[in-house]
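Lab notebook page, bench 4
Experiment: in silico fold of construct C2
Operator: M.H.
Input chain length: 123 residues
Purpose: comparison with the prior construct
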Amino acid sequence: MPTLMLVDDDVSVREVLRDYIQLYCPQFIITAEAGDGEEAVLLAERHKPDVILMDVRMPVLDGIEATRRIKQELGLASSVITFTSYAYPELESEAKKVGALHHLRKPFTLDELQNVLTSVVKV
């Protein structure tokens, strides 16, 4: 079963994502959750999740820099899916430039999330 790490500074967002994934994407095992990018890098190195669902705007270290460290410095094969409520196209291109496989714009539907997660497993 593929493993997944949730990264968002908003605990309620992580709770909603966790509940949804457990109910509708049971093929994933959530192995870690982080509240900022720095914690995400540490937990990614420890758990080596198959998929990382990462918010872009967070305190301490943002999701783009965390993705860069996870993909380029640590060299992890994790598929990173970034998301944000900011509608700046350059955020998506920056995220993909540093190694994110997909980028979602909040508010995204739960069907969109399920489709992206399913496609990542097939990659």
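Observations: The chain has one domain: 3-122. The helical segments are 11-24, 37-47, 63-73, 89-98, 110-122.
Next step: discuss at group meeting.
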